Amino acid sequence: MTDSRYLKRTIIKDEIDSLLLGEKRSLRIYLPPGYNEILSYPVVYCQDGEEFFNFGRIATHANQLILDDGIDPFIIVGVEVNTSVRTEEYAPFGNRFEAYTSCFTEEIIPYVERNYPVRREARERILAGDSLGGTVSLHLAMKNPELFSKIISLSGAYYEPSLDILAKENDLSHLSLYMVVGLQEDNYTTDTGTYNFIELNRKARALLEERGAKVKYFEKDGKHLWGFWQNELPDALIYFLS
């Protein structure tokens, strides 16, 4: 049974008006136990924000890590997405990719930093994403080394266009990634085709390491589902926050 202390959490639902996307974008903000606005906190930015909270149980994991495992308190920002345009925003070949990545750096981060006491150094920001959410997190970090250096990639969807972009980079030594992919993800069908996610992640890992990135990499029993990723989140958070 889950300890009731883990379920008592503060989650604020915010909304920004994005000029770059031409619409409102919802955010979920987790504030840690003992939150004090005169302090400052590391911050985890999650793509697929609603899923990270509902299916990844990231707020419950965070409470447990902070209350029981000695991890210093941190803030979580879940950026929600309309699943009907998710590929268009998260994939580099999508027609909303440039607008979304610009919104992330030029609107979402400034909004969070105006309203919450998050730390502003690249090493204090973590990007987290599953599947294409892992992909867009990597692209954000490659495009904005002054903002991001740490990425949690849960079964990243590293399709050929992303691998090609990665191959053109020369120096990615500023990046540190925690990558995990499921051994049952070798024949997974998405809205753009059927892929071997194990091979895609192996290729991405090799390209990253060849360019100096630090990669903590795992292949484990698991499918392309939140049932797998949910259990991987605590170790991924500990890796960057301990």
From TrEMBL:
InterPro entries: AB_hydrolase_fold, Esterase-like, Mycobacterial_A85_antigen. Transmembrane segments: none annotated. SUPFAM superfamilies: alpha/beta-Hydrolases (SSF53474). It comes from the Bacteria. This is Enterochelin esterase.
